[in-house]
Amino acid sequence: AAIEKGHFRHFMQKEIFEQPTVVAQTLRSYIRRVDQSVALPQFDFDLSQIRRVTIVACGTSYYAGLVAKYWFEQFARLPVDIDVASEFRYRDPVLEPGGLALFISQSGETADTLAALRHCKEHGQTIAVVVNVPTSSMAREADLLLPTHAGPEIGVASTKAFTCQLAVLAALAAHLAVKRGRMSREEERDLVDQLVETPAALNAALAHDDEIAAMAHLIAPARDVLYLGRGQDYPLALEGALKLKEISYIHAEGYASGEMKHGPIALIDEAVPVIVLAPSGPLFEKTVSNMQEVRARGGKVVLISDAEGLAEAGEGCLATIEMPKVHPLIAPLVYAVPVQLLAYHVACVKGTDVDQPRNLAKSVTVE
Ligand code: G6P
């Protein structure tokens, strides 16, 4: 059957709003409800023997991989190497026996990623893929197939495939952590409980749609926009900037909050909005002080956070968007929503072709 937009204006908008449903659908196939543990598909090698993970992907899928790097290192204490697929093969990466190579792709056909997969296979790596199209080349060539259940994604700019990738990668991180003796069964159960809450948290984030649509009018006139984030939310700053570039054609850059003082701060003036992703936690105060450096230079800040006293922290900001309180493992999924919505609404204000932005293709099958 043809896929319809229903009451939505664009496929991208529909896909953003589908996220609670498709993330829940994806998680269901990775969680065993009887004992609240993570369950992966059957395969015949021992994950506890993996010594290193190499992650390769392109575009938005690459940013999902960057988040996974934080998770695999933090929870499973596994060293992770990550690269964009177009760079990977040409630097002749060191691939030692016993390595797991992980490829992330919505389409499963991106030429650079597929070539990197084949290169890793030739070099004796075990191949895992997180892919949305189960009949794709990558799905067929994998040793371990980890499907996302996002359903067909029509909008060229990826949204629901990204959050579903993160859901699978979070489950994989927990599984690897248990296998490597870095996480107890009780901690695993806790984490699974949190993961099960993700769709509700996504709904809470989606409830800010009107607010973000109104804010989009303030961002649309900008020529440049900066996105800041730290730790596992730094990749979300990169993804936010990518979404805005892709569909609104506004130049945007994502930066690690603490790195701003080494360059981008020179750009800050009243004309450059700065979107700050600042989940509460040990790094929150540091991010707030980065934000004050922006404000002191006349920069207009949009603060996206779940921190207590957000109104106070956000005093003098252009706007604040309050996120639901969630486990740090889930924060990247939840923070994806406001950056997607912001890009979407800015593009609508600018009147661009949201679902088919100029010069971009849904799946890039040339190198
Ligand atoms: C294209 C699309 C992006 C996507 C990237 C990777 O550039 O426009 O939205 O993130 O390819 O695609 P993949 O199918 O490998 O995830």
Automatic annotation (TrEMBL):
Root EC class: transferase
Subcellular localization(s) per the UniProt record: Cytoplasm
Catalyzed reactions per annotation: D-fructose 6-phosphate + L-glutamine = D-glucosamine 6-phosphate + L-glutamate
EC number: 2.6.1.16
Top-rank lineage group of the source organism: Bacteria
Active site: K362 (for fru-6p isomerization activity)
Single GO biological process annotation from the record: amino sugar biosynthetic process
Every SIS domain range: 43-182, 215-357
Oligomer status and interactors: Homodimer.
Stated name of the protein: Glutamine--fructose-6-phosphate aminotransferase [isomerizing]
Organism whose genome encodes this protein: Novosphingobium piscinae
Gene: glmS
Parent sequence residues shown: 241 to 607 of 607
